[in-house]
């Protein structure tokens, strides 16, 4: 056996949040990657094992101390928004310095500047760069990602929802009435910030919807992607996210009205054909139902289809920290560097 | 202070399942009730503390050894269906013997015999008794329950859903399109039977829909109640129950299409008026969202209302073992015996 | 039935932490108590239902606005230590004003001022009051509590441990080698303060010892009580507390070396005799093992005894928020006001 | 890059329990292994994805259908004991057929036949083979494992405990009084069998000791290993295992009396030296405490040392399914086939 050479030099900006830490672990195990720098804005002199209960002995550094000319790719796992050390600024700084960037934050996902303003409720200091980022939903933009130098990694809810509905959107079957998306996320989706609802005692033995009825910032991202997939306007989407007492995972249960149109078996065949060759998207057998456990700890997406009166229920699950963040980021890196798409992503 | 006299003699048939055990605890703390007999079909000679981790020293007995002439009321917490020791038979035996009955099982909830046959997939050996049971949704049938000798205690999902939609049904506002109900239940809702999906390792760190799209046996019960409430046919209901890793509680997130009709403030006022005097139903303030924790460990129902494009999202929660089973049974007993409705039910 | 008159006026100082909220719920259900005032130092104008997910509509007030002459008893659920609004000051202010006090905090539990200084690492501004508080372990100081106007409610770990070892201490059987106490607490024991280890994602799927080997502030309290019980010095105690991913409960697993001395059946008989008439302490049958579930949601203590080579393993559990805090406080109030000891404490 | 060739053909006997399933996932990701056969005694015609919620499409087969001459190594994840399809028989059948075997069950761990009889409470039909198995604690028997054809993979509790105490045993510092081991295991340690205490509702929000004081079958295994490590008799061990509501992980909190002897810094230095070069054993920095999270999802062991009055508290954690079962089995396979010890085991 010849040991693979570790020849891609990467840095992780923001290695101490849940997504950043997950990404670090993937990269350390990736046969082709050398993780030379992992930054922390607030604890640049610490070791990762002082901030997380881990046996990994990984020294952190400040974002400013990363020698940009020595890295082939920068991953950004930073809070979104304007200001020093946040995603908007850092992604712009790196991109303008000619560094390849995969941004796991939300600052460069929406193409329309006023959508950004409205949903993120802040100005965008680098609106001119918005168009230069490819939306990194690997299965949808595979070839564009392979050629990209800047990738906006999708949000966790949008990844799960868009993959659940992609075959319907593409076939032009998302045209009737309201699409009702009820989704459940684990607590890592709420981040590592200190707030009462994230305390164990509050979240445990509880399930709680948040922002029901209101428009969550993931909705314009979902709408933008579904429009791109279908090449047409999408009827209204009702999205109700919930927190459930699990560490990780997203499950979306989606009701799609389909009073006319394709039969259930046509739909199933269309999904099967669409995802037949995808290494990370799985249509479950008839009778099976997707659950968090199907994908927890993996980069996979599980989808199940269920007929109902007047339509269809689609259930999909991903691991929010993997396919919904760090895993898809590695998948996109693999595409950008011409590696096998599954490299370094355990099955 | 004069100690309340314990003057109502009751028996619990089936005291060792989750609902039965919860009921036993409520009854032992009830100031007016003497719990003389608690039965177990499979362990009639055991003590409750040998079957559950509890400090309660409560001897069990066989169903046959309960002296029917000495009890004022029998609670039944038995598996539904035909055959000895099951709800259908035992409720009939007791009812025909002239004993007052509150049946927490599903055998006497549906008025239409063919609905029963279809959803419970078994024959009903005592179909002649179906009409003699009052459906025990306390807030809806309060006066009929007060006069009843036989009460069919509602299911947990139907209780939560019907109270969530009662004001809309009553006002005639449930007339458009599909009502999409996504509900989450704790594992105690799956009972104490031994099956793989109920194991800790399987259910923990998981959320799983069950029977999506298919019609669950709670759907005809929900439909029957909403029809009774509205006096009209109800458009289609899509119901997707999920298991979440909590011990107890039900949360229903319901999308109601309402493109024409009342304004949000009219709806809110109508709910407020409807439930103003109810001790166990609470409309949360604008901006708050109902969660499992609002009602866990209580007999309460929490409801929150949220406008959305083209309609309304109603969120409601109950404790499945209390308002969804044992608590509502005690509430109904209080009604039947002319006690304050909240007696023995902690706030 | 004659409705019990609610004739004891109480106030809760610090109603928004986990112990305070638990106490509020007990008091609202207590047949003899009128809870007229519940304070919050930081949110005096809020309603409890704005700070906790609850259907309880309970207005809060500032500590200063409680009319001390109108209350019969004040419960204090405040952070320990010196300074305005903390237990040391508030308890002193109320006590000096002649108000009966039950302090659920730690400021008045240790009789020796230098023990306080050492373990709480702060000065005590009201050391002169230390001797005037009765240590409120109900089962040990029942008659003194009945006559007391000031009670220092025990800590959760000391309550569980002291009741587990009381019969051994009393019999003079705690004389050999090190007593090794491994204890597990639910997260509510860590309070509602915002800190990384209390976040759901950190505590869930984790068990973590804290301060192993070091002396936790509960150790001098345990030692003081065991000395009082035995009338003699106690050999060394090794105490290792752990956090486990449950909301509530304390389980202590205690190894007691007993190479000489009583037989297992003598020990068992002694425990049985000691606790025979206690309403809230239960010696489990031989072969059974105490677990959190035995006491969760109740004011009870469950104890099981297990022989081992060279000694004895004692396992005990309580609910940290009930017998370990609010429940024992109500039990002590019942003693102080001549009520049945179990009044308002569900079995 | 040259793709590593997959040149080691393995089979997993018993692929559907928790350890077996974990092992399957490791082997599928191992760069040198081809997993040709995965058996199920009870569901030989099923696919793994019909028995577990997974996207893995892995057909199962019967144990009899595995062509023994085509495999280089057989892993056994079977229930222990005598009789067809159990570990005793299958390991003997494969070993006698000349197949290399790593047995994850307990049948070949104890060298003394009467120890086996006593603790496993059954006869051993192949006692003549006992001496031919190397005890597979990788860090202790590395060179013997490299030469072995038959390996008895250690139990989860013994692995955690033995690695926690190895430096003390080796140095001759385990000579005083009782070693008190309190250990906590996640529910996967109880297996996938159907029993009431393994139900979610029973285990959740609970912590429960099992067999306190009694001798668990892991005790003779721990004693045998500590004796081998120290070359001397070991004083008595008190072992109390507990179940905690987590899916995976073992934490051992061990009190070692050490009134005379080495200083804390000597002990720390000795641990540091012992484990300096071990890829999977980590001595945490002074002040840090080992927790489940340190090792969950990895093959690592985390150890922390804490002085206490009259001795030492050692805390150690492993993932019971990885270092405590499947991970250590792969580590042993790597040793047997001359691969880098960490191959296929994510950091």
UniProtKB/TrEMBL annotation, chains A, B, C, D:
Reaction catalysed by this enzyme: N-acetyl-L-glutamate 5-semialdehyde + phosphate + NADP(+) = N-acetyl-L-glutamyl 5-phosphate + NADPH + H(+)
GO process annotations (BP): L-arginine biosynthetic process
Enzyme Commission number(s): 1.2.1.38
GO molecular function annotation: N-acetyl-gamma-glutamyl-phosphate reductase activity; NAD binding; NADP+ binding
Pfam families (alphabetical): Semialdhyde_dh, Semialdhyde_dhC_1
Superkingdom as given in the UniProt entry: Bacteria
Pathways per UniProt: Amino-acid biosynthesis; L-arginine biosynthesis; N(2)-acetyl-L-ornithine from L-glutamate: step 3/4
Primary localization: cytoplasm
Protein name (database record): N-acetyl-gamma-glutamyl-phosphate reductase
Organism: Sulfidibacter corallicola
């Amino acid at each position: 056996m010849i040991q693979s050479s570790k020849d891609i030099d990467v840095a992780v900006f923001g290695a101490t949040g849940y997504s950043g830490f997950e990404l670090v672990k993937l990269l350390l195990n990736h046969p082709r990657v050398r993780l030379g720098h992992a930054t922390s804005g607030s604890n640049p002199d610490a070791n990762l094992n002082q901030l997380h209960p881990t046996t990994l002995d990984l020294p952190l550094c400040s974002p400013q101390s990363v020698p940009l000319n020595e890295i082939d790719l920068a991953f950004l796992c930073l809070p979104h928004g304007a200001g020093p050390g946040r995603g908007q600024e850092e992604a712009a700084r790196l991109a303008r310095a000619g560094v390849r960037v995969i941004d796991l934050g939300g600052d460069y996902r929406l193409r329309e500047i006023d959508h950004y303003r409205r949903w993120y409720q802040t100005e965008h200091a680098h609106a001119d760069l918005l168009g230069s980022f490819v939306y990194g939903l690997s299965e949808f933009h595979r070839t564009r990602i392979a050629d990209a130098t800047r990738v906006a990694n999708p949000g966790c809810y949008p990844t799960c929802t868009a993959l659940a509905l992609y075959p319907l959107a593409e076939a032009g079957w998302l045209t009737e009435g309201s699409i009702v998306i009820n989704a459940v996320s684990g607590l890592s989706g709420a981040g590592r910030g200190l707030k009462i609802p994230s305390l164990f005692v509050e979240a445990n033995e509880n399930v709680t919807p948040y922002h029901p009825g209101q428009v969550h910032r993931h909705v314009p991202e979902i709408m933008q992607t579904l429009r791109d997939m279908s090449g047409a306007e999408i009827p209204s989407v009702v999205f109700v996210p919930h927190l459930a007492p699990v560490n990780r995972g997203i499950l979306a249960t989606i009701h799609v009205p389909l009073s006319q149109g394709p039969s259930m078996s046509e739909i199933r065949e269309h999904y099967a054909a669409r995802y037949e060759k995808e290494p990370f998207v799985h249509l479950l057998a008839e009778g099976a139902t997707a659950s968090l456990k199907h994908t927890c700890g993996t980069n996979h997406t599980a989808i199940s289809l269920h007929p109902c009166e007047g339509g269809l229920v689609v259930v999909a699950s991903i691991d929010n920290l993997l396919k919904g963040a760090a895993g898809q980021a590695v998948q996109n890196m693999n595409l950008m560097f011409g590696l096998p798409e599954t490299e370094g992503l355990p099955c």
